[in-house]
Amino acid sequence: YSALKQNQKAEQNARKALELDNTMYQPYRILSDIYFAKGYEKYENYLQLEEQAKTAYGQQADELVDKRDLAKAAAHDLFLQSDSFLNEALARTDNLSEEKYIKSRKQTLEQLLNATKKDFF
Questions:
Q1: What gap in Å lies between CA 1 and CA 8, rounded to an integer?
Q2: Exposed e or buried b for every residue in 67-81, given b needs 16+ CB within 10 A?
Q3: Which of 26, 51, 90, 96 lies most in the core, judged by the most C-beta atoms within 10 Å?
Q4: Which residues neighbour 11 within 8 Å (Cβ) at sequence distance 6 or greater?
Q5: pLDDT single digits (tens) 5-45
Q6: DSSP-assigned letters across all residues of 20-40
Q7: What's the rounded Cα separation, in Å, for the pair 120 and 30?
Q8: N-terminal to C-terminal alpha carbon distance within the chain
Q9: pTM, to two decimals
């Protein structure tokens, strides 16, 4: 289901697999991929709203900034969840190519987490 972009069914099946056997790494990897995709969708929305807010004025600008900040926070939370699932997958696999993939994905997530962390100003 994951390959077919049927994320809801893929997530349900991955969670069911974990109920049956939580020692497998694959369900965690699938969940990580799903949350990564959801996070990236929110991240793209954040970037679009950021661009729109640059040219807006007044109340419209305020509304766009609020929506932008919500999209950014949502992306960050989804990326954190994706990273957590990757950590679980890494702890459960001894497959070298899988470990390499997970470490590579974690580097990408680190960049996205930095890009979506909360600004303090």
A1: 8
A2: bbbebbebbbebbeb
A3: 90
A4: 30, 31, 34
A5: 688 999 999 999 999 999 999 999 999 999 999 999 999 99
A6: H-TT-SHHHHHHHHHHHHHHH
A7: 33
A8: 42
A9: 0.91
Give me 71's structure tokens: 């999209």
Contact 72, 25 (CB under 8 A): no
For residues 106 and 29, give the distance between their C-alpha atoms in angstroms, rounded to a whole number.
Answer: 12
What is the residue whose two structure tokens read 């962390």? 117
Q: How many residues does the chain have?
A: 121
Model pLDDT, residue 121: 56
* Mean pLDDT, range 54-62, rounded to an integer: 95
The residues near 43 (Cβ < 8 Å, ≥ 6 apart) are 71, 72, 75, 79, 112, 115, 116
Backbone phi and psi for residue 110, each to the nearest 5 degrees, phi listed first: -60, -40
